[in-house]
Amino acid sequence: MMWKKSLVVFLLSLLTLKAALASRNKTETNTCFPEFTRPSLGSKTNTVMKGQNVSLICSNQNKSLQITYNLFWNDKHLKTKEGESMIFNLSITEVRALGPYKCKAQVLNCTRYSDPFNFTFFEPVTRPVLNVNVIQTKRDHHITLRCISFNGTLPIDYTFFEKNTIVSPVISKYVREPAEFNLTRNNTGEVEEYRCKAKNRLSNHAKYSQPFPILSTGGDSCPFCLWLLLPGLLLVLIVIILILAFWILPKYKARKAMRDKVPRDCGNTPMEVEIYENIYKNQADKESVPSLGTRPCVSTAQDENGQSEEMHYATPIFQEVKPKDHEACNEGKTAPVYSDLTF
Fold first, then answer.
1. Are 286 and 325 in contact (CB under 8 A)?
2. CA distance 57 to 105
3. What is the pLDDT of residues 56-70, one digit of tens each?
């Protein structure tokens, strides 16, 4: 029985010693690191775009301790670093990479976790579209401006400009619909120019619409008639040119084909010889004619009734008359002399 009592005493002593050691370690931990608090995890921006590079900063208030930092995404361990504070660089390539993230700070057996941190995904706005409606009166004109950006994370803030001057307050839209603004301007005869700006929480990615010009006129005149008339005139001019081109070109081709079909005979035909003989004989009665270098040409064509017609061509020969003969005939006075051509 004695050995049983000894065993029980030994076991009780062992349990008491173990409890004392645990209590001692706990006391030493709380005593040695009373300033070791939970770390903080954050970023310079919590709104990001897809594919953007960001940085997470994990730090502790105590700068004298040698702390080991561990970064977790959900329950997955990402990186481990040591120092007073650590910066973790990340790339947000997909929506699930927005978080949550946690930071664990550890000194010896002491461990502290930060609060979870999440990024917010934002899509930048695209170039807005400006629509302008004008109601013209005799003295002034009423303008309705509508602006909308078809992409971008809501809410979106819209602002209207006349040239570079703001003419409207900021209009926030929490649904995908155009922002509208009305104003009235006097008729000055000058060109007015309007545009709008759209931006969301990504203020560095604000977009402007294309400028929209308006011609201010008075009376019953139409401010857009000139713009509408010019394209119409250009269209009419193009149509006229095309009509003339399609009307003249066939006629030109037909005439050219007719000329190509007309037979020509420049040979030694009896008709040629007879004509040249007549010309030569008629000229020989008055004066001698030098020998001809070329012979006439006879062309044959058909009229509308299908009958053949001949056209004869001849080359007249002129001879210089001596001045003394002219003076004798005109009693010494100079006068022009005319000659008759006989065919």
1. no
2. 12
3. 999 888 777 788 899
